[in-house]
Amino acid sequence: MTARLLSTLAISTVAALTLASCGGGDETQGEDAPAEESTSGLTLEEVQEAGVLTIGTEGTYRPFSFHEGGAGELTGYDVEIVTAVAEELGVEPEFEETQWDAMFAGLDSARFDVIANQVSITEEREQSYLFSAPYTVSNGVIVTLAENDEISSFEDLEGATTAQSLTSNWNELARESGAEVEAVEGWAQAVALLEQGRVDATINDKLTYLDYQETVGNENIKIAAETEEQSQSALTFRQGSESLVEAVDEALATLAEDGTLTEISEKYFGADVTG
User: Where are the domains of the chain?
Assistant: First the structure.
């Protein structure tokens, strides 16, 4: 594979990982809704005086932020992470459920203090927002049948058939790797075609695979290869909230050291995805 093609694949991988970690479970979700005029930031002292950390999250984005059974208590990986952070700060978490398209506008207008919804760190977002230390790190993965020994790298996809959603950036990565793409509507259909022997592989985010295995436990499939590029997701704050972000980073460090982050991660993914 030429250096030029490898460079193109790396760019596509970064884009796919970034868009796959943008909330809402929508792999094509890449741009944030136009922001309202941002209010000033929030200090740690102000949060502690209020006794509450108000958190924007979707509530419909399993396994990160959802209601068990559709109507149960709000839970999920991100919900538990930010709840543990709030406890370290000595305040109560208060959740404001918001659609992804309105999430950043809600933060800008101070409807909430922080977003906890698998927001990926990008250079563009760093120009407008502050991020905590990342609490999720993920790669792109090739998934094949467990018995498949022919595919162990992205180069091996040359001439193979992969199952991809046509609106997904993983579709672009598959094609640039030389694969023929069988169109599917999503992960479940891709796995079905894989098990039926109609495709050789599928590419997706590692978190999707881990969540599926933790829920279903399918021994017929495996991760055959991973991208070197990674996406990182973090809690997101308005500019001017430096003291609050510093305290949140200290809280995350404490939660990492005492094993809380790993425990929450393994509960939802069966693995430590906290980095």
Answer: 44-137+232-269, 139-230
Which among 275, 262, 270 is positioned nearest to 81, based on CA atoms?
262
- Assign domain 139-230 to its CATH architecture: 3-Layer(aba) Sandwich (3.40)
- Does this chain's domain 44-137+232-269 share its CATH topology with 139-230? yes
Tell me the pLDDT of the chain (275 aa) as tens digits.
554 444 545 555 655 666 555 665 444 344 455 444 457 899 999 999 999 999 999 999 999 999 998 889 999 999 999 999 999 999 999 999 999 999 999 999 999 999 999 999 999 999 999 999 999 999 999 999 999 999 999 999 999 999 999 988 899 999 999 999 999 999 999 999 999 999 999 999 999 999 999 999 999 999 999 999 999 999 999 999 999 999 999 999 999 999 999 999 999 999 999 98
Tokens of 128: 């407008």
Query: 180 is written with which tokens?
Result: 């023929």
- Under a CB-based contact definition with an 8 Å cutoff, are residues 166 and 130 in contact? no
> In the CATH scheme, what is the code of domain 44-137+232-269?
3.40.190.10
Could you give the 3-state DSSP secondary structure of residue 110?
coil
User: Distance between CA 194 and CA 105 in Å, rounded?
Assistant: 40
Residue 54 near residue 112 (C-beta atoms within 8 A): yes
Across the chain, the runs of DSSP E, i.e. the strands, are: 52-57, 60-61, 65-67, 74-75, 92-97, 114-120, 129-131, 136-145, 161-164, 180-183, 202-205, 221-238
